[in-house]
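Obj.: predict assembly geometry.
Materials: sequence records (below).
Method: joint structure prediction, all chains together.
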Amino acid sequence: MNMVQQFDPAQLDLSQDYGTPAMNSEVEVTVHIDGMPVTVPEGTSVMRAAAIAGANIPKLCATDNVEAFGSCRLCLVEIEGRNGTPASCTTPCQEGMSVKTQTTRLDKLRKGVMELYISDHPLDCLTCPANGDCELQDMAGAVGLRDVRYGTEGANHLAGAKDESNPYFTFDTSKCIVCSRCVRACSEVQGTFALTIAGRGFGSRVSPSEQQPFLESECVSCGACVQACPTATLQEKSVIELGVPSRKVKTTCAYCGVGCSFVAELRGDEVVRMVPDKQGGANAGHSCVKGRFAWGYAQHQDRITTPMVRDSIDAAWREVSWEEAIGFAADRFNAIKASHGVDAIGGITSSRCTNEEVYVVQKMVRAAFGTNNVDTCARVCHSPTGYGLKQTFGTSAGTQDFASVQHADVMMVIGANPTDAHPVFGSRMKRRLREGADLIVIDPRSIDLVRSPHVSAEHHLQLLPGTNVAVLNAVAHVIASEGLIDEAFVAERCDRVSFKAWEDFIRLPENSPETLEAVTGVPAATVRAAARAFATAGNGAIYYGLGVTEHSQGSTMVMAMANLAMATGNIGRLGVGVNPLRGQNNVQGSCDMGSFPHEFVGYRHVSDDTVREQFSQIWGVTLREDPGMRIPNMLDSAVSGRFKGLYIQGEDIAQSDPNTQHVAAALTAMDCVIVQDLFLNETAQFAHVFLPGTSFLEKDGTFTNAERRINRVRPVMTSRTGRSEWEATCALSEAMGYPMPYESAAEIMDEIAELTPTFAGVSFDLLDKLGSVQWPCNDQAPTGTPIMHKDRFVRGEGQFMTTPYVPTDERSTRKFPLLLTTGRILSQYNVGAQTRRTDNIVWHSEDLLDIHEADAEARGVKDGDWVEIASRAGETKMRVRISDDIPAGVVYTTFHHPVSGTNVITTDNSDWATNCPEYKVTAVQIRPVSEPALA
Amino acid sequence: MANQIAGGVPSREDVAGQVSHHMRQFWTPEMLKDLSDIATNKPDCIGAEVHAALAAL
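Observations (raw structure tokens):
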């Protein structure tokens, strides 16, 4: 009987380790493994082919997320017609090859190899933290090792030191078998190259940087080395303390917009560790320090788990029952409605809560409150993405999946710092760059990608803050004037009239690099070189972040990028596209769920009679057709005395929104502020009702990441508050006269799917079956849509939009001669509410102000000095770090610590179309001050 | 805000039309009324295109 086993990727059990990476060749070869025929892509290792065939060859140095190394000599095989016993991990399959994986000779060799390994390894299995979870132990058993004939009197490494400097894992050198998996994981998977093998021969040892403790090295604590280690050499401290986990739950990270899939491993109800899921569509088994290790905030002592109320913000909080808290909130909101009208109240949805939790909040606002005054934190980050991409392409989301970057020939990274803010995706980018793709960085700062191990930007356009549109117009001018437009793509796919108008505009001399050089600070030659590189590469992909959107021309810049992508034909296939790097775990989902005041779920305008009628039918209530207020409008209206009540789900606007003084004044002016959150955050200082929220470990629902991927969030532990967040919201809605009697989060998603064409095929059952799915997911795309606009744009033809550069009003002056821009760092997340309550604090205990040496010297400021930073909005104090990552005239800081007061100095300048705050451009002055007294 | 919208809209043709479209899409009735009051009581505070946009609403 012909038992040829064809390689079918769909049948692979992705949780298994196949030893070496998969190959993508379209040519296939058939080999025989122990007499069984197996057909695999050309280039597949013998080890992997054997594993597919079910013959698992013993291995120690091989693992399938890094390239083969051939060092452990355990995976030897016999190949007919070849001398010796080659390593199966480094031997590619060839047509007709016949392999034996088990022979007497191989058994003897493998036992000998294991005997040598065990002779230099502590024999403390019964007390070792990896007992039962150790590949060395497994291989000793697999090869049938019964005896170690070598004594312990000779030289050995059993007295090796243990490095416990990292807060999350230990490095016990006495257990290291120098398989180099950790070194390869750090280089190939993470791309940091923090680890190496120091010494030679018997003296070879794994070395973090220059044989430094891990905490002092270049290690970024992604955990890839811990994941790769086959022994207890690199071991999570939580496993040492709590023991090997006994059960697992798959869920999704609640930090950034990459949306990594994790397997929560527990003992009972206690999380022992979070392990990145190999089958994760977004992360493919990789992680960063936050998702991997910084989940302890969920059980921090600061967690509030009981509802609280108070009559005024000056009074003390009272702990009350859920019923009393809901009743208190409902009474206050109903009273406000009666006195001031329905538009005097509203809600803000969270970008950290699930789609289902967000959906019920916006539904409550529209149906129970009777207003469209609902908004979301995307207002302050990617609302321009929604506006700009809708105008040009017809839909408000990124065009590709993350895997697309593996096909890019040139990447243009604008206003983003992916190695810090989207680390797992940043690692993917670095891998592609090491393979030879080119990189253009448009950023005032020298972000890590500009120059890091084995990666550097061919073109760094180091522009002045606030000049994005000018730079991109200059790039487009070069492409248009030098005949580099993809005329065929434009003719076939784009609106001819708008293209002509744009082309006429962009060719104007005022848009040339030479004319704009004085404005942007970027030499014309640099712009020309970058433009040619982007236009002539096979596949050009644009990746961007808040350095694009958080500007007075944020929406214009998004449209400019869309224009560039269309003009160069870089849409609708792998390796290209316009890719917003969305910051938060569910900011995409929050927008999808109708959190904007002018749109229902699925980005349909509230004035659309047909859509509104459909919602009215399903929701059983008449809905408003006029748009509601955005967050800035709500705050302005509160200060003027007309807006009186606000329900805030999982957002800390008193810390995250600009012009803190204005936010505080607005919140203080309200009669009822309801905060639903994990901790008493800055906004809670102004609240009358605190409804305790649930962490991601307690949630049941879905998140949607930056690539439109809908992932399941599964409850790992029971809710510490006694109910889920959506139940709390529904209870308030019912108390205000509009019941929402859902039985489960799955039922909420079913309603979303019923109402939303792009979500029509989504259900918890589908997600359990497929793992995740990228919307649109419907009859036309039953398994989702990784790449959008393949044959046509969502709006039909792509629309070009002219993008005249309008300088921001926020300019440096004699009084405020420096320009402040802000950003994030790897170890902390947004306002730090979660990460400050974990051991990540060891890497960033305070926000610092980065300043160029020349600017510091001119002000008599040295590294570490305290300074006052003043803008026209206010002033705050920070310590300084001298840095050459930023040019003279620009200063930079983060906003992870509320005490820094970064948003005390940011202004209320905003994007013309969406009111997204202009966080990235604030004119400031610095002066040295003494260290502030502790409060 | 209205002046900024007039300055930010993509095309310099029919700015008033673009501004009125934007306000219809995103502004609440109360905000439109506030702007109308400003247009009446402090007409110099807003640009000609915004006046035209309001007239078109």
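Conclusions so far: The first strand of chain A starts at residue 5 and ends at 6.
To do: check interface contacts against the pulldown list.
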